Amino acid sequence: MDLNILCYLIPALIMFCCGVYGFITRKNMIAILISLELMLNAVDINFVVFNRFLFPGSMEGMFFTLFAIAIAAAETALAIAIIVNIFRAAKNIDVREITKMKF
Amino acid sequence: MDSVGSIIMYVIIALSIVIFSVLAVTARKILRAATYLLFTLFATAALYFQLDYPFLGAVQIAVYAGGIVVLFVFAILLTSNPGDNSEKLESKKRFTGLVAALAMALVGGYALCTRCAALLPDMQSAGMQKIGETLMGTGYQQYLLPFEAVSVLLLACIIGGIVIARKR
Amino acid sequence: MDATIQILILAIPLFMFLFLGLLGKYLSHKLAGILGTTAMGIVTALAYYTAYLYFFSGDPHFQDGTQRLQYIVFNPVWLEFYGNLHINIGFLLDPISAMMLVVITTISFMVNLYSNAYMRDHHGVFEKGFQRYYAFLALFSFSMLGLVVATNIFQMYIFWELVGASSYLLIGFYYTSPAAVSASKKAFIVTRFADLGFLIGILVLSYYTGVFSFMDFTSAPVEGLADTFKISTDTAAAVLVNKFTASPVPMFMGCSVLTWALVLIFMGGMGKSAMLPLHIWLPDAMEGPTPVSALIHAATMVVAGVYLVARLFPLYLQETAALEIVTVVGALTAFYAAMVACAQVDIKRVLAFSTISQIAFMMVSLGVCRPEYHHGVGYMASMFHLFTHAMFKALLFLGAGALIHAVHSNNYTAMHGLRKYMPVTHWTFLIGCLAIAGIIPFSGFFSKDEILTACGEYSTLVYIWMSAVAALTAFYMFRLYFLIFWWKEHKVHDPHHAPHDQPWCMTLPLIFLALVSCVAGFIPFGDFVTFNGEEHTFDLDWTVAGISLTVALISIAVAAKMYMKENPLPDKMAAALPRLWDWCYHRFYWDELYMFITHRIIFGLVCKPIAWFDRHIIDGTMDAFAAITNKASCAIKGLQSGNVQTYVWVYLIGALLLGTVTYICLL
């Protein structure tokens, strides 16, 4: 039995879908951020898998992932800072309560 | 033909990715969700190791599992009491989420299944020296500029984080 | 010939307008008045000098034996379009423009001087906007001078509009009074409407002839002298032959195009000179300061229509149909205005209608002028009357201003019996009245007599008609005179504030103009102004003179009988002819007719539907667009709920659909 590319992509896809589901359904902003990390991670996996299966000689996918991880870290740090700030202001991090930015 | 060991390894990794992902988005305790995320990230790191990207796996563990998740845990502790349960989801909300996720899965799965069928080719794992040269080089397919950009970004992020989160 | 003086004649008033208009508020009132008056005095001296040179120097440019010539002092191109289509701004010296220079500058100087005192109250406090007043006076003087020295019809049109604009500004000088504002607008709109005809006339004339210059219409160049022309009916006839009657003859509605052009140009003159039916603005224009009425609405601007016809007279001679229209309009207006003047209470209105009537006299005189009748006496008489009328009517208006200033009312009912209190005003006003009534030896006698002679040569009907108007003139002027100065004793409430004569700068112009009115009649006008420039001595026709003198004396006697002492006769007469009295008093309901036409017919039947269309169809369409946009945004604004998760859901589904579509289409 051979492991073809799909064997790696399908779990990544499932991970991504979980991220989507979580993003849409969770109320806690940190949980939403967690879902976001899941999606990002799924994408990272895709980069690596395509790199590995289709272009084994080069390293673009790998480096893309590397930078994505770095940027994800930065993004998370900022997002968490914002969330902490919101919590301070509103005593609450329920995303449904934070709906000031509308018409 | 892959070895049985690697197939078993793959099955474990794939199962843990799927299971922990699902748990991470369905767990009602937020701290547990963070923990499941940590497991998912570990599983991803294992996947990288299995695909002959040890450096990437190490970065994944160090930055993601070690850094980001810790950040999450701190944030969770700062913004909620550990015992808090999130409320039960309304069915409507869950339905919309499921629709979106399933639509994504359907479209993505269909596209993947009709297009992708490559087998795992052989590959020499890239040595540390080569990775270092690629990361720090300025030549073709070398990444000094993005590297510096990321370093500036991280710096900005540190400052931004402090500015946003500090008490006034 | 050096043109400096002529340039200065135009430049000084323009400069004073700019100077007083821009910097006036930094000057004291007194200084502004003195500056304006001095500048006008200088212009007057220069204009007199120019006229003296023109009439008496015998320079070959000005005179060829007994024929006076037209000389273009300067004529630079102002606007160039292409080829020979260009507009010049020039300075034309010929008999009528030289005469007009004298008239305008004299009256303008007198009015400037007079206004120094008039535009103050009894405590010597200046009116608000005194400097602005002087700036506008300077603008008017500039425009009027530019009008009379125009070398081409387009320059005339430009200055024609400028005098209209300055008239508008001066009528509306008391802009806080609604009556003055509406009067200024009325004057502007009515004359504007007439000027539309003028403009179309200019365009028609220029389109068919290809020239603008008056010389090309009416004069022939004098050989050997640059810029010198003599009036020639041959040129006018050639215009007719070469341009207008070239086959096929351009006709429009049964009349030749030249007739149309001349009638349309005359329409402009009708508006400015307040001929029936475009006279309605002039009585209302009396809302302006009285010196302005004297300058603009009696002596100078309103005769621009007469001047226009006189300027194009050789052309009019080619189309006698147009001249007959001028005659008919003039005759009707003269009679109408004289009738109305008999029943007015406001002394300025009486004078305004009298002005209309007298200008109509000039128009009739031009209309009946034919070279074959007594060497074209009508043209000379018209210009002569223009000259004398300017003097005595300015005198009457300035006198009326003095009266109004003394009693603070425009109505004779507030005056009565003022002769003892204001002797100078009384005597000068009397001289003005005698002059306009046509009593020998005052100036009006001579000019009116020559007009009547011209009418008599033309047709007996016109002669009798105009004599009747002259009789009415004498009657209403002396009615006015007796009602102001006699009728009954003036009631003085407070001896310290009894009406009295005005300071010297108001009485001096009165005395000067009265003197001019006494002697101007003896000027041998035929030596200076005739229709073709040929000097010609016109002898007084003593039959006509005797008849008109008798008629005038009878009218004065009737007026004296009715109004010298308080008596019930006028009321009885008004009661006996109620209909006639009402019609005269209400100016034959012309204003009401205009109100009816404009409000009921034009506004009601034309503008209202247009406004409705604009409001409901044009605006409605735009409003509908706005409303649809508004409604649509209101309907979809709920989508921007502020809920991030909804956004993500919508975005994701949209992206998936897009991806699917792309996938299906491309692969």
In CATH, what is the class of the largest domain in chain B?
A: Mainly Alpha
Q: What class do helices, strands and sheet pairing of chain A give?
A: mainly alpha
Which sequence of SSEs, written as H and E, runs from N to C of chain B? HHHHHH
SS strand fraction of chain A: under 5%
Fold topology:
The complex is a heterotrimer of chains A (103), B (168) and C (667).
Chain A: H1 5-25, H2 29-54, H3 60-90
Chain B: H1 4-26, H2 30-50, H3 54-79, H4 91-115, H5 128-136, H6 144-165
Chain C: H1 4-23, H2 29-56, E1 63-64, E2 67-68, E3 70-74, E4 77-82, E5 85-88, E6 91-93, H3 95-118, H4 130-148, H5 153-171, H6 178-209, H7 214-218, E7 219-221, E8 228-231, H8 233-244, E9 251-252, E10 255-256, H9 257-272, H10 281-284, H11 290-299, H12 304-311, H13 313-318, H14 320-341, H15 347-367, H16 377-407, H17 423-437, H18 443-458, H19 460-485, H20 504-519, H21 542-563, H22 569-576, H23 578-585, H24 590-636, H25 644-666
Antiparallel strand pairs in C: 1-2, 3-6, 3-8, 4-5, 7-8, 9-10
Helix pairs in contact in C: 1-2, 1-4, 2-3, 2-4, 3-4, 3-11, 3-16, 3-20, 4-5, 5-6, 6-9, 9-12, 9-14, 11-15, 11-16, 12-15, 14-15, 14-19, 15-16, 15-18, 15-19, 16-17, 16-18, 16-20, 17-19, 17-20, 18-19, 18-21, 19-21
Overview of the molecule:
The complex is a heterotrimer of chains A (103), B (168) and C (667). By secondary structure, chain A is mainly alpha-helical. Chain A has helices spanning 5-25, 29-54, 60-90. In chain A, 76% of the residues lie in helices and 0% in strands. In chain A, helix 1 runs antiparallel to helix 2 (29-54) and helix 2 (29-54) runs antiparallel to helix 3 (60-90). The radius of gyration of chain A is 17 Å and the shape is elongated. The N and C termini of chain A lie far apart (57 Å). The model of chain A has no long low-confidence stretch (mean pLDDT 87). Chain B has 6 helices and no strands. Chain B folds into 2 domains: 4-88, Four Helix Bundle (Hemerythrin (Met), subunit A) (Up-down Bundle), CATH 1.20.120; 126-168, no CATH class. In chain C, the strands form 4 sheets. Chain C has a 4-stranded antiparallel sheet. In chain C, strand 9 and strand 10 form a beta hairpin. The termini of chain C are far apart. In chain C, 52% of the residues are buried. Chains in contact: A-B, A-C, B-C.
